[in-house]
């Protein structure tokens, strides 16, 4: 005879930590209630630490793909020394919209590191700059330009070196300006200019250094999925040649991909955001 709760008992048996993803305050209260006799450490993973959790990992995006979301939380916790290789954790997440509806058991292994945490936290550019560029790319992917799909290539961080490994395709509309990603006006400009060829170059602090850049990185040692064209190849290759992070919106399949160290780290569908 098996009781339904036995199933859950197996999932949470002997875990070293419980990761709670984006809990509401009322949901989180049950864990901090003085009468609760839970002795498992709790890690909150969320866009903001709205519940004042003691151990907290900041989520830069609400990754719609649950594996990405969990990976981000676990890689962040590994980095912070909260968990380590061999630990077993239970992840309490909302798979569908709304409240927590699943508990997923995960063994922490060095080889599960996908680089997704590293992409945001350890890029040369500020994490908030990477997040803002993602947001522009996602929005552009959702709406397109006047309803038509557009592609765009954003190269973020280490701008001086990136400028040295690229050349202008036309005059640079950002030449004398001091605008930053995340400013509402800039988002409008970036969308307008996304019809143009080439890449946007963005500094570590988010300043738009240039539009219209043709990248000329060395392409050896770049390993990206087959079928991606020149925009993706050059965007990936520049991240091997310099200490930059590329975020690419594909005109042909509408997906947003991020590259670092010559590798594809993340692939998301703007329609899910
Ligand atoms: N080396 C490069 N540097 C900057 N931009 C480039 C480079 N190569 C291509 N592009 C830009 O990418 C655009 C699309 O090229 P291509 O179709 O080969 O790329 P892709 O990877 O298939 O991207 P998409 O999925 O958007 O079609 C070009 O029109 C150009 O604006
Ligand atoms: Mn193409």
Automatic annotation (TrEMBL):
Show where the DAC domain sits. 113-270
Q: Record keywords: Lipid metabolism included?
A: no
Keywords in alphabetical order, please.
ATP-binding, Manganese, Nucleotide-binding, Nucleotidyltransferase, Transferase
Names of required cofactors: Mn(2+)
Q: Could you tell me which InterPro entries the record lists for this protein?
A: DAC_DacZ, DacZ_N, Diadenylate_Cyclase_DacZ, DisA, DNA_integrity_DisA_N_sf, DNA_integrity_scan_DisA_N
Tell me which EC number(s) this protein carries.
Answer: 2.7.7.85
Enumerate the Pfam families for this protein.
Answer: DAC, DACZ_N
* Catalytic activity entry: 2 ATP = 3',3'-c-di-AMP + 2 diphosphate
Keyword set includes Cell membrane: no
| Root EC class | transferase
Transmembrane spans: none
Role: Diadenylate cyclase that catalyzes the condensation of 2 ATP molecules into cyclic di-AMP (c-di-AMP). c-di-AMP is a second messenger for intracellular signal transduction involved in the control of important regulatory processes such as osmoregulation.
Question: What's the family?
Answer: Belongs to the adenylate cyclase family. DacZ subfamily.
Q: Which PANTHER family match?
A: DIADENYLATE CYCLASE
Question: Which protein are we looking at?
Answer: Diadenylate cyclase
In its UniProt entry, the species of origin is given as Halogeometricum salsisoli
For this protein's source organism, the top of the classification is:
Archaea, Methanobacteriati, Methanobacteriota, Stenosarchaea group, Halobacteria
